[in-house]
From TrEMBL:
Official protein name in the record: LacI family transcriptional regulator
Endpoints of the signal sequence: 1-23
Organism taxonomic ancestry: Bacteria, Pseudomonadati, Pseudomonadota, Gammaproteobacteria, Oceanospirillales
Domain of life: Bacteria
InterPro entries: Peripla_BP_I, SBP_2_dom
Keyword Signal appears in the UniProt entry: yes
Gene source species: Natronospirillum operosum
Keyword Signal: yes
GO molecular function: carbohydrate binding
A GO-annotated cellular component: cell envelope
Biological-process GO terms, alphabetical: transmembrane transport
Length: 313
């Protein structure tokens, strides 16, 4: 489906934009700046602006993914200074709705990336760009079954309960296992996207489940912590491990054989395509309501291939 920019809306944008508006500024606001994944979004946003001078961008995010109030403040500040558009990766599907509505009421278009907002935000933003997290979770589950079989225990190391990406990614992973196998789910355990917390949780899971056959770390800091715990453990023999995202730590864990694979999102593409979507909208072009930024399962067999190298960071 297409969202068509109407002439009327363009007048609304102009009429409602504050007189102090920063001409041409696109505010890119992510879940945290303390993650290579989100810094790769920043690089993509920068790439989208190459070769043009009409738009600039700012990049910001709170100190952690759980600092939701701080992210809300960043959105509200962007609205108050009258940016031309906002690219937002919301840390909470409900809590960010009022801030996005505020942007809408001020005639500022918003593009959502990575994690969905709740239905209460419908109509307040122009497009949603993301990996199809449900499909990504199912892809990992399918490969897990291929390698461990259909019986035994699989631990799920998750991050922030209720985050839009977590609901699809982890929910569809566990649903797929339940539908296609007799594998028993241990967890999920929530690291709050803290690597140290994930390391400690994984260490405890390994100690308590000597019969574990598989384990899944569902985002970057969680997967890194999980991988480090596996590397340090004496109880990791035969455990099939998959992570999510693709920073250098996770790449090394794949190369060293600690992880059997990592499902890598197009984080660069989220930044690049998100900023381009805002520019297209402001320039009167139609944009898709949903844009799939893709996922690649990176394994020891394909990690050096172009398909994998194009998404790793």
């Amino acid at each position: 489906m297409k969202i068509v920019l109407k002439v009327l809306f363009s007048f609304v944008v102009i009429a409602l934009a504050p007189l102090t508006a920063v001409a041409g500024e696109i505010a890119v606001i992510v879940k945290t700046t303390n993650s290579n994944f989100w810094m790769n979004v920043d690089r993509g946003a920068n790439a989208a602006l190459e070769g043009q001078s009409e738009f600039t961008y700012t990049f910001s995010g709170p100190e952690s993914e759980t600092a939701i109030a701080n992210q809300i403040n960043l959105v509200e500040n962007a609205v108050n200074r009258g940016v031309s558009g906002i690219v937002l990766a919301p840390s909470d599907p409900e809590a960010l709705v009022p801030a996005v509505r505020q942007a809408y009421e001020n005639g500022i278009p918003v593009v959502i990336i990575d994690s969905e907002l709740s239905e209460a935000a419908d109509g307040y933003y122009q497009s949603f760009l993301s990996t199809n997290n449900c499909a990504a979770g199912e892809l990992v589950a399918e490969n897990m079954i291929e390698q461990v079989g259909t019986s035994g225990k699989v631990a799920v190391m998750s991050y922030v309960a209720g985050a839009g990406s977590e609901i699809g990614r982890v929910g569809c992973f566990t649903d797929y296992l339940a539908e296609h196998s007799d594998l028993e789910i241990v967890g999920p355990f929530y690291s709050q996207s803290q690597m140290g917390t994930a390391l400690n949780q994984t260490t405890d899971v390994l100690s308590a489940n000597s019969d574990l056959v598989g384990i899944f770390g569902a985002n970057e800091p969680t997967a890194v912590g999980m991988g480090r715990a596996l590397a340090q453990s004496d109880n990791n023999d035969g455990i099939v491990a998959f992570g999510f995202d693709g920073n250098e730590d996770l790449q090394d864990l794949v190369r060293y054989g600690v992880l059997n694979g990592i499902a890598v999102q197009g984080s660069f593409q989220m930044g690049e395509m998100g900023v381009r979507a805002i520019m297209d909208f402001l320039q009167g072009n139609a944009i898709d309501e949903f844009i799939d930024t893709g996922v690649v399962l990176v394994t020891p067999d394909n990690i050096d291939e172009p398909e994998a190298q194009n998404v790793l960071y």
